[in-house]
Every structure is written in C-alpha cells, then in structure tokens.
Write a structure and sequence with these properties.
single chain, alpha/beta, 7-stranded mixed β-sheet, 7 strands, binds guanosine-5'-diphosphate
Amino acid sequence: LFRNRLEFYAAAKVASSFPVPDLPEVAFAGRSNVGKSSLLNALTRQWGVVRTSDKPGHTRTINFFKLGTKLNLVDLPGYGFAYAKEEVKDAWEELVKEYVTTRSALQRVCLLVDTKWGMKPRDHELIGLMEKSQTKYQIVLTKTDAVPPMDVARRAMQIEENLKANRSIVQPLMIVSSRSGAGIRCLRTALAKISRF
Ligand code: GDP
C-alpha cells in the first residue's frame, strides 16, 4: 500500500470545502509535537515532499492526501498550543468535530499520543467526540525509543485500562517509533486492511 504515490489533493478550512469522499480515509490526530509529521514520513517515506506546514502561526487546515487509488490519508491540525487564541481553538474544534462526526469515508482515526506524556484533556475531548459518532479510532503511542521499555509497557496498560469501556470502536493500540522504525510495519499492515484493494 505505502509504495503508492502520495499526492496532496485538498486542504479545507471549513467543512463545506471537504473534498467529495471517494476512497476510504484514515485520519491522523494528536497534540502538536506528538510526532505526527515524523510518523507520516516514516509510514510513506514521501511525506517531506508533500507536507504543508501546520506550525504555529500558519493557517491551520485539514489536509487530504491520496495514496494512489487505494486510501486517503488525512492530516488533522495538531492541537494544544498553550498560546493558541480562544477563537483559533474554537475554529479548530468546530472543523475537527465536523470532520470526525460526519465524514462518511472516515474508517479510522489514528490518535497519536506521546509515550512519555500520555493522554491529555484535549485527547479525551477528541475521544469523546468519536465515541458519540461511533468513529473507529486507534491510539498510536509515539517516540517509544525515548522512554525505557518498562515505561512503554506501563503507559500502554494504563491507556488500555482507560479505554476499556469503549471496546466496540477502539482498535488495538499501536506502539511506534519513527526514529527507530519500531512498530511502523505493524501500523502499515493495520492500515492496509482499510484500503481499497
Ligand atoms: P508534529 O508536530 O506532531 O508533526 O511532530 P514532529 O514529527 O514534527 O516531531 C516533533 C518532535 O519530536 C521533533 O523534534 C522530532 O524530532 C521528535 N520526534 C518525532 N518522532 C520521534 C521519535 O520516534 N522518537 C524521538 N525520540 N523523537 C521523535
């Protein structure tokens, strides 16, 4: 799947400009700095070529990419800048809320969580939305090379315990490191199952 060419094809600031759904979609969400760009790069090996900036101060949009004619990858704007203005936060919330709750093509949200820091209130907010709309999601623990293996295991257990009640929509937890490459193939395999063959 990830040998297919990655191509940027749409950016949306408002829900009315979401592209017409044509392929199954997997969206990537998480706090800013969680390692989303690095993970997308590790997964596709083409991210650097197409990536548009979502650094603080830039316009924040939902960005849509095609992996050949198999799967769409959707980059949700990172959240949790301590200094994000209220109106920026509200706009983000509305846009992401609209996307995760109404998007018919959305098959999976990969919610990235930094292994060292665990889940934060904004992550729980997003989970709350996905539960309401019954959107399938999967926690992806990132940067596992940066913490001792015991702490990775502890964090994974803590999160699984936390999400136990929502078994029907929660997909197996993934443990990855873009730096060491650990878990990347496993995540690729999981996502390939969603793609159109
Ligand atoms: P984004 O803001 O979520 O797109 O995060 P980036 O991919 O830009 O990464 C944020 C910071 O985390 C950068 O300094 C990266 O070098 C670092 N980082 C990303 N992935 C990893 C990883 O797998 N291991 C380690 N140790 N650091 C990482």
